[in-house]
Amino acid sequence: MVEHNTLRRPWQSLLTSPLDKFMDRSARRALYTVAMQQPPQSARRLEGRVVLVTGAANGIGRAIALACAAEGARLVVADVQTLGETTADTITQSGGEAVFVACDVSNAADVEALVEASVRRFGRLDVLVNNAGIGGDASAAHDLDLETWDRVIAVNLRGPFLCAKYALPHLMANGAGAVVNVASTFGLIGAPNAPAYCASKGGVVNLTRQLAVDYGKRGVRVNAVCPGYIDTDMGGRRASLSPEASRAANAKREANAARQPLGRQAHADEVARAVVFLASNDASFMTGTIMTVDGGCTATFNYD
């Protein structure tokens, strides 16, 4: 068995490296402080922390929940679909701790109850991942019905606000915490026939920055990831497609992949790894950051 104090932390090698002679006393002191705050490299990055992930029944949210559990977190799996129970079951069957709570993130009472249930179950809350989201609009603004607009904005923008509103007091109470919002590259640029989705995700991007300003000095970091084209099945609809619709969906995925500078769509676990990074101490000096996980799409003009 390796003793804890024999494990090297990420920055400790610098303290005895040739670079040390170029550092003045204050620089060495600062580096030493950072090194001592970092966990040993063999430690899991979210060990013992309580992480709440919304929209975790499938797709990116499920991948995030599983990735956080693999890093030692205790999970609150939230989703409007009871399919979220399977995500929690997968974690517990693998030796982790997880609980499923049904929640409509656009409903304030549901969200308040979700946060209360999380703290009641685990005694604390350390990380909030706002992942729940829907598409829904597929038309230009003049053809978009108001019900669709309202629903997309309610889930995609009101939802993250409500979750932050009720979770932040608990994150502040710990003296440290992290919020990671899952936005979209469509929140950074315009996309055809998606006015509600683009507006909602653009709102999440700037809500992230605003919360970072308000809560940084209160010990809470707030960042966002913006996935591009992801090979995922939002809402679990792929299995129910007709053969013709399935062929059309496959053709669309192939076209999306062709637009990527990396030549493919991302996998959900690639987004999940970015979320784990932002939630962990590895991102200890990052807040208000909008991280794209898009295969380089926003570096091109290929968004047709």
Automatic annotation (TrEMBL):
InterPro entries: NAD(P)-bd_dom_sf, Sc_DH/Rdtase_CS, SDR_fam. GO terms for molecular function: oxidoreductase activity, acting on the CH-OH group of donors, NAD or NADP as acceptor. It comes from Deinococcus yavapaiensis KR-236. Belongs to the short-chain dehydrogenases/reductases (SDR) family. This is NAD(P)-dependent dehydrogenase (Short-subunit alcohol dehydrogenase family). It comes from the Bacteria. SUPFAM superfamilies: NAD(P)-binding Rossmann-fold domains. PROSITE patterns: ADH_SHORT (PS00061). It holds the Pfam family adh_short_C2.
